[in-house]
Amino acid sequence: MFKAPYPPYDPLDKSGYDTVVKRWPIIITNLIDHVHRLMHDMTIKSQQLTESEGSESDGAKELQQKVEEGKKIIAKASRLKYRMARDQELEQIPEDGDIDVDVYNAELAELANSKQNTWFTAPWLYAECYLYRLFRSYFNETTKWRNFDPFFAQKEEMFKNSGAAIYQIATTMHELESEKDKLKSDPQKLLVLFREMIQMCLWFDLSLLTHLTPADIENLQTVGKDAQQARKEYILKDDQEAVWDYIKTLTGPDKRCDFVLDNAGFELFTDLVFADFLVTYTPYFSKVVFHPKLFPWFVSDVTPTDFEITIKSLLSSTFFPAGPVASPESAAHLQQMVKRWQTYLDNGTFVLSTNLEEIDGEKVDGQELAKFWTGPWPYWNMKERANQLWGWLHGSDLVVFKVCPLAGSFPLLSLRTNKADVAVGVPQEIADKLDERGEKWRVSGKYALVSFEPRGSISSES
User: Fold this and answer.
1) Right CATH number for 14-147 from 3.30.540.10, 3.50.30.70, 1.20.930.60, 3.40.50.2000?
2) Which superkingdom heads the taxonomic lineage of this protein's source (predicted)?
3) Tens of pLDDT, residues 114-149
4) pTM above 0.70, yes or no
């Protein structure tokens, strides 16, 4: 197992301490509250069915069974929160018929041997991954809640609130249609649009962990040259020119881009728009593969179900709340764009990695390929722990990550809005100036990094 060079928690490490005493307990509490609200609704529905159909109603019985299982889920989550607050030992993941039980428990046994198996002593990466795998087991050990996503409602609610920006972007993309043929032969015009795509992905990367006021979000959610120029000072590392120079060297058919997906909802929408731009409006790519997480992960990450529901929701005329958020023209533009995405999914231009069946003529299990993303390993262990996945990405012409310490393994474009203490590639003098001004630039979500490393530029073995 990866051994961190520094203690996983330290009284001086405020971010790590806040994670275990504040952030994780809040996530557990929200899970409990969500399940409790659903149980309340189920109880009322069961009573209504009993009154209308009698006590032998199959629907009422099923709801009652689900409520009883929900009570057990809440009891487990409450116990977990109690144990976490008291720095008690992490317990083994139960055999729930799902992936990586043996992997997590083997690592937990090693941590126990080194006395690093309590909530305040376990390495942060392992502990957070373990937490979501444990959540998964709570629902898997039931019959009525198995495969339930306790974070879906939260993801969907945020997505619904993004309607105005989604319609605006759909119209912007529609306006490119008449210029499509000209654009493909004009790299300079494509570069301007490419910058728009990059910054769209950065400034719409407003996950559930970014603490911005509504005014901040509204200010960031603007599209145009003035906004782009205004944001330039907030991009602390900017490799946009370098990655574009690389992309222009891609010639010939069958060039592939891989997106390692992060947050669901609006951020996934912007990923799809970026992918659409690459295959529809540039001559450089003909295929995009999207890599989701296999089950609910870090609250907001994209699962295969999220991906499929996003397409269906965007095609629905009733998904976004009623109100003056879209003109009939913008609504039509959105339909046109998303129907093109559906066509791409049908003909293999867009592919979800979990649906992959073949690599280089050999059969492959896409589900197996995706397991690494929900394991307890650092990304730099990919080649060792998930060689087939590493090989797939190594063969890609561009891999878009939101954060990734795999420079040199494959052509890597990392788009990162700063929401954690770790920031790589920022010149020391810039970091010092921001610190002197008292800016919370590492965690506020207002600053970003655009990092590009071509294949082999840094040893992937280091």
Assistant:
1) 1.20.930.60
2) Eukaryota
3) 999 999 999 989 999 999 999 999 999 999 999 999
4) yes
